[in-house]
Design brief:
Layout lengths: L2 H19 L2 H5 L8 E5 L11 E6 L3 E3 L4 E5 L4 E5 L4 E5 L4 E7 L4 E2 L2 E2 L10 E4 L4 E3 L12
Antiparallel strand pairs: 1-2, 2-7, 3-11, 4-5, 4-10, 6-7, 8-9
């Protein structure tokens, strides 16, 4: 192997070694944008089903923040869940991420939310900061309603 090719290989290996050794936090420092989160389900036209969920969609991988609340209200009763009671699911290739909550995650006193009924208007709110950027946890979402 001639010296030019050898020097290229050495340079390439040095770059790869540096990229592998950098901590994830160093790579994420450029991320200054908070995740954008919106209510995904139920929608206005959602039908009552046996497997109802409250689902938020995010534009990047998120983590759920302890001490922040998600609420569901029918105008008479308000049910509350800690943001961390949900589950984050998603796809790294498409960068579609979701925070999924079972209805039973929500309580009003000792009563669990058991079902969403047809012909009832519900308000779903997520407290500001309920969802955080996984790469930079200080980037938190705004309130969602």
């Amino acid at each position: 192997m001639n010296s030019k090719k050898k020097n290229r290989w050495v340079a390439l290996l040095a770059v790869l070694a540096l990229a592998i050794s950098l901590p994830a936090a160093a790579l994420a420092d450029a991320d200054t944008t908070a995740p954008s989160v919106s209510l995904y389900s139920p929608t206005v036209s959602a039908a009552a089903t046996a497997n109802q969920k409250i689902i938020f969609a995010a534009n990047e991988k998120i983590t759920l923040v302890s001490g922040k609340n998600i609420t569901v209200s029918d105008g008479t009763n308000t049910y509350t869940a800690n943001a961390t009671s949900g589950t984050v699911v998603g796809d790294a290739l498409s960068d579609n991420w979701y925070a999924v909550y079972d209805l039973t995650d929500f309580t009003n006193g000792g009563t669990q939310l058991s079902a969403l009924t047809l012909d009832t208007n519900y308000t779903v709110n997520a407290e500001a900061g309920s969802f955080a950027d996984l790469a930079v946890p200080s980037n938190t979402s705004g309130a969602v309603s």
